[in-house]
Specification:
Layout lengths: L22 H6 L10 H9 L10 H16 L6 E9 L6 E14 L4 E4 L4 E3 L3 E6 H4 L2
Antiparallel strand pairs: 1-2, 1-5, 2-3, 3-4
Protein name: YolD-like protein
Organism: Bacteroides ovatus (strain ATCC 8483 / DSM 1896 / JCM 5824 / BCRC 10623 / CCUG 4943 / NCTC 11153)
Amino acid sequence: MSRYEDIINLPHHVSKNRRPMPMENRAAQFAPFAALVGYDDAISEATRLTDARTMLSSDEMEELSQCLNQALENITERDSYTFIYFIPDNKKSGGKYETVTGIIKSFNEYERTIKLENGDILRIDDIVSISGEVFDKD
């Protein structure tokens, strides 16, 4: 005889004092529970990868400077350029590189920024590469 043979075939107990719990409430008992508020956010932030800022050599900086000067001198030509620039991360060291293509609308010498016609504003110090058909013609 097994340990539970005397009760295995008995009917399920139904309380005379309490109503059965509705199925919706019963399912809520098994919903996930976050014991530490913000813990998941902290983990995802810690595991988020950033790129280190690349320092250009003096030759690369000189070439970039020449390309930027040429682009700014020909601003009225409305040529399209592709910029690769660095965006620093607000929460941790490093950042990410973005690529944007557009026509230069204006240059702010005081703030050292370039504004594109699509509304993007690029800091000159964050630009690591500029390319365009204008440079291919040389």
